[in-house]
Amino acid sequence: MFLNTIISVRISCGRFVNNVTQHVSVTYIGSRNISGKTMRVKAPAPKPAPWPYKTNRYTMLHRFFDRTSARLDENSKLIVVEGPVAAGKSKFAQELADELEMLYFPEANLDMIFTNEYGYDLKQLDPQLPETCRSFDLLQYTVKYSQYIDALAHILSTGQGVVLDRCVYSDFVFAEAMCSKGYISREVRSLYYELRKNSIGELLRPHLVIYLDVPVNKCLENIQKRNISYEKNSPDISYSAELLVYDWSHEGEVEVIVEDIERINFNRYDEQDPKFVDWRYSREEMFAYLRNKYSDGKNFLMTYLNVPRFNIPELLIEAEDAKLALEIYDNAPGNEYAPGYNSSMGDTSILFKSKLPLRETLPVIERRAR
């Protein structure tokens, strides 16, 4: 079991054995079934162009002229692919996103926050840093939380669905595993759950989770083949989402799973049912509020992770060490000034620029093998 909520499970393993006022009423996301491009009978209905949420604010004035619901269709969904390490999730998620014409988000990883806008890997600086300031895996929850906010902002601002390779809701299993093996202390585990409790309620849960189940022996075999060091040594979501589980010992066909997805009626639940409750709204202003929250309000949402705990020695940094680390990071290539203002990295027309980046959007990059 993964995730800490409760849902009904649909098992499909056997298939692989062989201009408006703010009070206008709208139809919530999920009124029609998801459709793949292969079997789609007719082209999707035209909708407004994607909103550039990474660079433009969605203000109160925009809410009257740019309806969020006008962009949302049957494929404006959040799908998460889960499963054991080396189960083939990344390949499957990419193929699924392509078939459903959704945006693929690779598994959230520390490279996303330690790679700056110019592609420089800040982990290269670890040998120069005091030991207490080096990159560490407690940030894994932070990067997954940040990526999930980006996914929600993308769906609500563009109408395009998103396929995530793992997500923030299942991250706790890694904290539990590391604690049980002694890699982190019980105090660090306690802080992890405090961060989680303080932040995860701000998110909208996914529409669909697809779990690729692979036996332990097969996982170990795949891990050895991949030869990635961190893998070698290193609840149930159906209360609020649909869950499909597949035996992925031998990779199946994405088209078959798409057929299963197309059969799911995301509109069969009444107002009292907890399924998809995060996405069921009847007023346009709620969609506008959520869109603004995740696109323009990301920096504020990240402050929910600022939980001070001074009783965990291994997470405390001496002031002198912190000062040294900041100096090293600030002098790294591309970090001297804000993105777009570094002439040494090729930025031009700096004298005519006056705006800073609106939000910190994580780069869409796969984890580097080390």
- Superfamily (CATH H level) name: P-loop containing nucleotide triphosphate hydrolases
* Assembly context of the chains: single chain
* Overall mean confidence score, pLDDT: 82
Total domains, how many?
A: 1
Q: If strands are numbered along the chain, what order do they take across the biggest sheet?
A: 1-6-5-2-4-3
N/C terminus separation: 29 Å
Number of strands: 6
Q: SSE order, as H and E?
A: EHEHEHHEHHEHHEHHHH
The main β sheet shows up as: 6 strands, parallel
The proportion of residues forming helix, as a percent range, comes to 25-40%
Domain Deoxynucleoside kinase: 79-277
Organism: Popillia japonica (Japanese beetle)
Subcellular location: Mitochondrion matrix
Cofactor: FAD
Describe the structure.
- By secondary structure, the chain is an alpha/beta fold.
- The chain has a single domain, classed as P-loop containing nucleotide triphosphate hydrolases (Rossmann fold, 3-Layer(aba) Sandwich), CATH 3.40.50.
- It contains twelve helices and six strands.
- The model is unreliable at 1-31 and 226-235 (pLDDT under 50).
Quick description:
This is NADH dehydrogenase [ubiquinone] 1 alpha subcomplex subunit 10, mitochondrial. One of its GO terms (biological process) is mitochondrial electron transport, NADH to ubiquinone. By secondary structure, this protein is an alpha/beta fold.
Q: Tags for this entry?
A:
370 residues, alpha/beta, Rossmann fold, 6-stranded parallel beta sheet, 12 helices, 7% strand, globular, P-loop_NTPase, kinase activity
